[in-house]
Write a structure and sequence with these properties.
- It is a single chain.
- Helices cover 27% and strands 28% of the residues.
- It is an alpha/beta fold and 347 residues long.
- Strands 3, 5, 6, 9, 10, 17 and 18 form a 7-stranded mixed β-sheet that branches.
- α5 packs across α6 and α6 packs parallel to α7.
- The longest helix is centred in the middle third of the chain and has 12 residues.
- The protein is globular, with a radius of gyration of 20 Å.
Length: 347
């Protein structure tokens, strides 16, 4: 093994990043594994870091390799690692639990009170090698490629949102057809949703949503999607609304498309406060509202595995492009231009 590696580093508090070929290969502790990264994907978090937004400025200590959606092979294990071995094909969980707090000890590691995030608080995976705690290792099935394996982490966010309540036989509205929203459409379809509505403002993303299983696609820039849904459901609205946009206006407006007694699941992160008419939108409707973050460890990963094996879910349409890692600027530029799907970076 070489002593140095290639990778993408956020060095300066400005827009952009740097591709380096002289980075030290991470050293592992007793509880870690060293992964030879085979595929990574760009997340919204990485865009915040690349663009150096306030969100990134408040969290990162530079310089640092970022990126946290990845797959690869274990090439070394710490002395305390017993469940995994050199040669295992794996995908990475992003959330690093402390295993000591109340949430961790009651089965909620994904909302650990002291949680850290790979590629945000600790060095990430936009590199040839990455060191992660054994708590963050998920074994890949042999029939799942590295490219698809790198998408399991964001797929988990989609699946967690969809399966955080009943979905089979329900009418569902998916708000936003970014990569996670698209995978949510596929997960709802694979899980037996009766009818799926999907909205976005980009027709190419809506075309992919149709491929993923959406029955009705609506460009909300051109049509009043609430009116379309109410007309189609004879004024009842849908059983389930799941937001992946984080758009304050869309979140508030979409309560009008929710059936009385329905479920409203919030996944997207708003940038400011959301103003709601609680009386009409929630109380009189007896709406059930829940928030979802990340993936349950590891219930959601098992659910993703089952969905992938169901034969009803094809993740391939969600891949928007594949780039060599040194061409990362092109991938970020494509996303900034509104390209649909996940962009993969291959070391």
């Amino acid at each position: 093994m070489n002593k140095v590696m290639k990778g993408i580093v956020k060095e300066n508090r400005t827009m952009g990043a740097v591709f380096r070929e002289d980075l030290p290969i991470p050293e592992i502790t007793d509880n870690d594994v060293l992964v030879r990264v085979r595929a990574t994907a760009i997340c919204g978090t990485d865009i915040h870091i690349y663009n150096w937004t306030k969100w990134a400025e408040d969290r990162l200590k530079l310089p640092m390799v970022f990126g946290h959606e990845f797959s690869g092979d274990i090439v070394a294990v710490g002395s305390a690692v017993k469940k995994f071995k050199v040669g295992d094909r794996i995908a990475g969980e992003t959330h690093i639990p402390c295993n000591k707090c109340y949430q961790c000890q009651t089965g909620n590691q994904h909302i650990c009170e002291n949680m850290e995030i790979v590629g945000v608080h600790t060095p990430g995976a936009f590199s040839e090698y990455a060191a992660i705690p054994q708590d963050c290792v998920w074994l890949l099935d042999d029939d799942i490629s590295y490219e698809k394996g790198a998408l399991l982490e964001p797929m988990g966010v989609a699946v967690h949102g969809v399966l955080s309540g009943e979905i089979g036989g329900k009418t569902v509205l998916i708000l936003g057809c970014g990569p996670i929203g698209l995978m949510a459409v596929g997960a709802a379809y694979a899980s037996g949703a009766a009818k799926i509505y999907a909205i976005d403002i980009f027709d190419d993303k809506l075309d992919v949503a149709k491929k993923m299983g959406a029955d009705v696609i609506i460009n909300s820039k051109n049509e009043d999607y609430v009116k379309v849904i109410l007309d189609d459901t004879k004024g009842q609205g849908v059983d389930v609304v799941i937001d992946y946009t984080g758009n304050e206006f869309v979140i508030a407006k979409s309560f009008d498309a929710l059936k009385k007694g329905g479920r409203y699941t919030l996944v997207g992160l708003p940038n400011s406060e959301v103003k709601l008419n609680l009386t009409d939108s929630v109380i009189y409707k007896e709406a059930k509202i829940n928030g979802v973050t990340g993936r349950e460890m590891y219930k959601t990963w098992w659910q993703c595995n089952d969905i992938l094996k169901s034969g009803k879910f094809d993740i391939e349409p969600v891949i928007g492009g594949t780039y060599k890692m040194q061409d990362f600027d092109k991938a970020f530029a494509a996303l900034a231009a509104g390209a649909s799907g996940k962009m993969l970076l291959i070391p």
